[in-house]
Amino acid sequence: MTDVTHFEGAHGPKPRRVFSRRNIFLYGTLIMVALYYVLPLYVMIVTSLKGMPEIRMGNIFAPPVDITFEPWVKAWSQACTGLNCDGLSRGFWNSVQITVPSVIVSILIASVNGYALANWRFKGADVFFTILIFGAFIPYQIMLYPMVILLREMGIYGTLWGLVMVHSIFGMPILTLLFRNYFTSLPEELFKAARVDGAGFWGIYFQIMLPMSLPIFVVAMILQVTGIWNDFLFGVVYTKPDIYPMTVQLNNIVNSVQGVKEYNVNMAATILTGLVPLVIYFVSGRLFVRGIAAGAVKG
To answer: What's the confidence (pLDDT) of residue 196?
Structure first.
């Protein structure tokens, strides 16, 4: 028989009950919040897989009886957006041509700005940083007309490159702040050692700072891709119908007053429009959290 007296003097923390009041409240709240955000997505998905006769029956929460992908095909290549009836496909490639260069240009310039502000104290650095911070909180709406005049005078109003420039400029302040905070959080000894070894501005940037900065680059990429891809205001103001981004075309599909409202096509078009930033976030979400946490260490 096992001697149980050996365990009589055992010490340790009292085990917590699984169904304590605290756990019930915590997990109950998390479940409710998750349902609040997941339920609309569920309705969109099941509606996009139904035919219109099934949708007219009125039960929006019921799964589709006969699954059909015809609404997705129509949303992508057949839905009418004004005079054009080629769906979202044209807007998708327009959005790609807008997003890719905008993200690359804004991140590269902002990373150099943040690196210079964190490690190279040039004359007027504090004034420059203050102006950038101020620019990060200026409402975009008050800059719409001045930017129209500027782009018109440059001869690029109504072009994809004009919109690329707008997104790059407006993304610069907040990205510079993120990079500056991240570079400030890195060990200063690395920078000083590189200076002692004779490395210059660009040598330190490319050989030391960039290899250590993957998390903050992922944060900047996700923020820019999400903001630029989902943008509607700049797209409708600074471009023209032939080069509208995907979000503007989605608005034209959903708010079309011609014919019968095809809710399954509208839902499929909405999911297709938001698919790119969602995929990017889920693929690199862990690095996003790491970069945000690291960039918030110092102000």
So the answer is: 86
Count of domains forming the chain: 2
Q: What is the pLDDT of residues 139-149, one digit of tens each?
A: 888 888 899 99
List all residues 6 or more positions away from 75 whose beta carbon is below 8 Å from its beta carbon: 87, 88, 253, 265, 266, 268, 269, 272
Could you tell me what percent of the chain has a pLDDT over 90? 35
Give CA–CA dist 173/169, Å, rounded: 8
pLDDT tens, 83-141?
777 889 889 999 999 999 999 999 999 999 889 888 887 777 778 778 877 877 888 88
Contact between 71 and 268 under an 8 Å Cβ cutoff? The reply is yes
Which structural domain, as residue segments, surrounds residue 273? Answer: 89-295
Residue type, 159: T
Asked if residue 78 belongs to a domain, the reply is no
Q: Do 141 and 52 have their domain in common? A: no
Report the CATH number that the domain containing residue 144 is assigned in CATH. Answer: 1.10.3720.10
**pTM of the entire predicted model:** 0.81
> Which two three-digit tokens encode residue 289?
């959290």
What is the pLDDT averaged over residues 158-173? 92
Flag the least confident range among 38-47, 140-149, 195-204, 278-287.
278-287
Q: What is the largest CA-CA distance in the chain?
A: 94
